[in-house]
Fold this protein.
Amino acid sequence: MKRVSSLKISISGVRGIVGDSLTPQLAGALAQAFGTYVGGGPVVIGRDARPSGQMILQAVTAGLLASGCQPVDVGICPIPSFLFLVKDSKSSGGISVTASHNPKEWNGLKFISRDGLYMTPHQVEEFLDIYHQGDFVYAGPDRLKTLRSEPQPVEPHLKKLLCRFDADLIRRKKIKVALDCGNGAGALLAPRLLQELGCETVVINAVPDGSFARPSEPLPENIREVCRTVVKSGADIGFVQDADADRLAIVNEMGRPIGEELTLALAAQYVLGKKKGSVVCNLSTTRAIDDIAAARKAPVFRTKIGEINVVEKVLAAEPAAVIAGEGNGGVILPEVHPCRDSFTGMSLILEYMASSGRTVSALQKRVPRYVMIKDKVEGSAEQGYRLVSLLRKKHEGEGRTSLLDGLKIDFPDHWVHVRPSNTEPIIRVIAEARTQEKAQAALRRIKKEIAELKKRL
Amino acid sequence: MKLLKIGISGVRGIVGDSITPKLVMDFAAAFGTRVGGRPVLVGRDTRISGPLLHSAALAALISTGCDVLDLGVCPTPILQYMVPRLKAGGGVSITAGHNDIQWNALAFINEDGMALNPFQGAEVLDIYHLGKFDKVSTDRLGRIRDVALYADEYFDGLRAFLDGGRGPGRRTRPGKQAPGEWRANGSPLGGGAIAKARPKVVIDACNGAGAPFLEAMARALGFELIPVNHEPNGFFPHDPEPRPRNAQQVVAVIKAVGADAGFLLNSDVSRVSCVTETGESLSEEFTFPLVTAEYLKDRCGPVVTNLSTSRMVEDVARERGCPLLRTKVGQSYAVQALVQEEGVLAGEGSGGVALAAFQPAFDGFATMGYILQTMAVRGRTISRLAGELPRYHIVKEKIYCPPARIHSVVSEVKKFFRRQEIDASDGIRVEDKSGWVQVRTSSTEPMIRVIAEDKAKNKARERVDEVSAFIRVLVQ
C-alpha cells in the first residue's frame, strides 16, 4: 500500500508533521498567501494545546505581518469561540493552528473566512492558487501593521450563550455536572460557562497543555474516567469535549456514555419541540434524527461528510435549519453560530433537562434506539471509487440510494454507507439497524460483497 | 532592483522587497543549525518591521531545537553583553542600525557576545546556501522564554567598569590577563566621578532601542538625563545615523537648558556622535579619538580601526606609543582583530567604539559613559577635550552604482592611481604625507563611497572630486 504523505494541502486546510514536512517556512508562506487573499485588515490567530503550536503560530504571525495584515493573537482558544470571535470582531479572517485529532507530532492550519466559518472549498482553491503561484503581497514599512493580543477571546461567545439560553431556569435547577475537557482548549471556557449556569461542576483533565490524558476523540472507550467521576460524585450528567472543543459526548447519571450519535439526537429532539424548521446533518448520522424530525414534520437535509458541507447547507436550507450537526457529537445551533460547538451543546442539553425536569437516562429513552457499527477495509481512494461504482450497479433498484458521498443505501429497517476516506488509504463501511444483530448482519453482508468485488479490480 | 546585502555578520535589506519572512526564517534556521541546539538570545530595535522579523526568527530558531531567550526591544550591545552571561550559544539582533526605516537586518552574535568573525559568518552562509537546516520533532522543539531585569545587570557592570573595578569584561583564558585590564586597583579616573559632577546630558535615541534604557543608565551613572526623541515607537524623526546633519534638535536643547554634553544614537546604540556644551555638533569621526586620547593614558596596547577612519586616532595612538592596526570596514573585522591582537580599543569613524576591557562590542552606552567620566575626572568641558585632538578634514561622497558592476568599477579605480602605492585590503586606498583617499563599496547599499582626509579642507575636497569624476564616467 502506498505510504500516506506527511504533508496534506487540501481544501480542508493544511496538515503536516513538525520536524519533517511542516516547516516554519511553509507555514509562513501559507499565512502570507492567506493575508494576500483576504486583502489586509485584522486576522485572528490561535492554536490548540499542541507543543508545536507556538512555533507554527510565530511563523503565521510573520507571514501575516508581511502581507500587511494585523494578526490578533488569541493564544490557545476553543475553536467555536475562535470562529465566533472572527465574526463578532469584524475581522478579515482567521487562521487556527491545529491538527484536530491527528497524533501530536502533527500540526496544521485551518483557514477561516470573515463570516467566522471555515473557508468553503472554492475559497480555499482561490487562496491556494495564490500560494502556489507565490504571488504574495509584500508590505513595506509604511503599510506594516503591528501584532495585537486579545487576552479575553472567549468573552463574546460566552455572552452570546448566556443571552441565548435560559440561564435563570438552568441556575434554579442546580444541576451537578462532571466535566472532562481532555486537557484541550475547552478548559478555557467550559468550567466558566457551567459556573455561570449555576451548575456544581467536578472538572477533570482541565489543564490545556496538550498532554492528552486520553485519546482526544470522545468515544465511549476513551472516556471511562469521567464515567467513574459521575458515579463517585453523584453527578446528574457528564460532559466530554474533544481537544478543540467542537465535539461533545454525554454520560448519563448512571455513569454510562449515551453514545456520541445521541448528542445531536437529544439536541434535535429538544429544539424541534420548541421551534419549526429543518434539520441538516451528514449521510452517516443516525436515522434517529429522521424519526425525530418526522414526528414533528420537519424536513431533514443530508450532506456529504465534513463540517463545511453541513454548514454550507445550513446557510442555504429552506425552510431555515433550526438544528444541525454530525453524529460524532458535533452540534450546530445556527442561531448561535453555524459551527460545531460543544458549549452550545452543553447549554442546550442542560436547558432541556431543566425545562423537562427529567434525567438524562429518561430523555435518552425517548429517542428511537438504533445501533451503528463503524468499520473499515483497506483500499486506496481510487480502489474505493471503483468499488462504489460496482456496488451501485449491483444494488440498483434496492432501497433508496444516495451517491452524495460514496454509496449510501437506505433499506426499510437498516442502512449501509460505503465511503473512501480522504485522509487515510481506507474505505469506511458503516451500518445502522434497530438491533446489534441486525446491524452486524448488514455490515457482514456488505463487507463480503466488497471482498468479492475487490478480487475483480 | 532588489537591495539585499548578505554578509558575514548577517543579512540586511529592504522590508517587503528583499527582506521576506522566508529569507529571515532561512537565515535564522541556518544560524540555529550552526548553534546546534543551545539557547539563543533574540532582541530587536524599535522599527515597525521588527515584530515581523522577530516572529519569523523565533519560529525558525525553535524549529532547529534552540531555546530562545527573548529580550524584546534591546540595544545590540546589551544583547551582546548578556550572551556569555546567560551562557547562550549565540544571539540574533534584529536591527538595521543607522539605515532608514525601510531597512531591517539580522546581526548574528557568537557565544562570546561578539559579532560573528569572518570564519563563523562563512559557516552560517554555507548552511544557508546548502538549505539543510536542523529540523527537530515536536518533542525537541525549542521554547521561548522572556528574560527579565537584564538591564540592571548590564548597567551595574558598566558602572563597575567605569569606577575602575576589573569590570566584568570578556571571558579570558585562565592564567592570562585580559588585554586592557585595569592595571591599578581603584580607578585611574576615580570612582563615582560622574555622579559627583552630575552633568546635564541631552541624548537623542531617535525613538530607537536605546530610549527605554537611558533612564536606567542615568540612574546607574548619576547624570541628569534630558531625553530627545525618547518614544521607542519605531518612527524615526530623522535618519538614525549619528552625525551632525541629524543633530539640530540636540543642539537646540543643549543651548536652551545649558547642558554639559549631547549625544546622538543610532537605532541599536552601536554608534554615537557627540555635541559639545557650546552647541557644536562634532563629526562622528570625533567619537573614537575622544575615547582613545584618554584611554591610552592608562593602558597602552594595539588600537584597531578601519581603513576609512580619520587620521586623528592614528596621531593620538602614535603620541602614546601604541600601535594602530587598520582592518576592512565592519564591526566583525575590527573586533576580530581586537581580540586576535590583544588590543585595547577598536573603533570606526562612523561612531562605533569597543572597549576591550568592558566588552569586545561596539557599545554606545560604554562610549557615552567613558566620555562623561573623562569630562568629570579631568574637569574639562567636552569642547575642550575635542579641541585637544588633532584636526583633519574628512570629505565623503556616495555614488550610485548597479550592484552587478560595483566591485569591478571599484577595481578599475586602480587605473586612476597609476603612480601611487595602493592598499587594496578594503576597496582602494592611497595615502601620502598630508592625507589619504579611499574608494570602496558600501556594505549596506548599492553605493560606492569615496572618502578623503587632509589637514587642508580644500585639498580633501579636491581629492574626492577628482576620483568621483573618474568613477562617474566608469559607471556610465
